[in-house]
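To: structure desk
From: M.T.
Subject: fold request, one chain
Message: Could you run this one when you get a chance? Sequence is below, nothing fancy, just the single chain.
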Amino acid sequence: MGARLVVVGGDAGGMSAALQARRLDPGLEIVALERTRWTSYSACGIPYLAGGSVPDLDSLVARTPDALRAQRIDVRTGHEVLGVDLAARRVEVHDRAHGRSFALGFDLLLLATGARPRRPVIEGIDAPHVHGVQTLDDAAHLLDTTRRHRPASAVVIGGGYIGLEMAEAFLARGIPVTVLERSSEVMGSFDPDLGAEIAAVMRRLGIDVRTGVEVTSIGPASVTTSDGDVPAEVVVLGTGVVPNAELAAEAGLLTGPHGALTVDRRQRSSEDGVWAAGDCCQSVHRLTGQPVYEPLGTVANKMGRVAGINLGGGYASFPGVLGTAVTRVGWLELGRTGLRRVEAQAIGFEVVEETIHSTTAASYLPEAHATTVRMVAERRTGRVLGVQSHGGPGSAKRIDVAVVAVASSLTVEDLVGMDLSYAPPFSPVWDPIQTAARALLSKL
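Reply: Done. Structure tokens follow.
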């Protein structure tokens, strides 16, 4: 009998790791414990399920428990880990279906316990009509509410990525929706003036956006705020997430400033033989070298791949993150990567910044949409440090060119000379990213 790997958590980080470990070590016994009935699903798709673009819950499942079992991974759904004993090398498990608890030993342990919605201390926050959108159980509950009860009004608390996507989902269902954001503008990962432009588009789409407001309580049919009462038969939390790292912390594993597990480049925790991946652990920002918390599906899958290769006897490392993200609300696409000007200056960079307005295709074509790009570069070297963009269809994925530039320490001059593709339906002669680089180059 080979060594036993116990995986706690059956979604992106956990199952990516389990499959990689199985591929590299056929003799490894792998037991995966998942407290819900779902494995390997796309939580990022939940807003699109809620809005009707995705037909059913099963469409979001990448690998079912049976599919994973066919890979000789002993998947046990409905099994919740209640404690970890590092000295005894065992976990305490509760079998929900049978109402029994038992101890399960391990030689290797991977923690992929994910995250949960941040719940501010607000009266009524735990009411049944208040929903998170983190798991497929959350999705099933929300879907039942929108389909069966047909609410006449909705409130989304928080104006970040999930907030925008859920507002669009309610809009698609024909449900009047209000977004409540305590900061001065929505999308706090963008500069405030760009956030104001985003909010203006949301309002034109028919979303009631209220910024600079505090939610004080949640009632059965309304939300009370510092700006008055807002009708709300259903409420969704878009207030971000917090890592499910309490189990690890109670076992004595180190956590960082965000409450997430600390791991090295190979996804090893502070305890020998214990690994972690996904939303329960922190990352390192590739430009600042500082610990950051980036609970994204892309990050979780990459972390899981690295952990699994190492658990299976290979070698891999995770280089860190740049804060890259894209989303959409209505026709407006958003993207960002790297550092904003204020962030770069805060860690000592002397920077130049430029904002340009362009189009997603040749301006003489009817499919050309307006797009805005803001780029930040280091003054002395011209190194690209960060990019933000928003605009019509075709805007968001342009950020990937910027990601390559930032990750590879390219300069604005490198970008200007880059042989990007061109045809009138896809881009102006000068791609908007290159136009921003040209504008910065003139300042350098």
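Reply (cont.): The CA atoms of residues 160 and 189 lie 8 Å apart. Let me know if you need anything else for the meeting.
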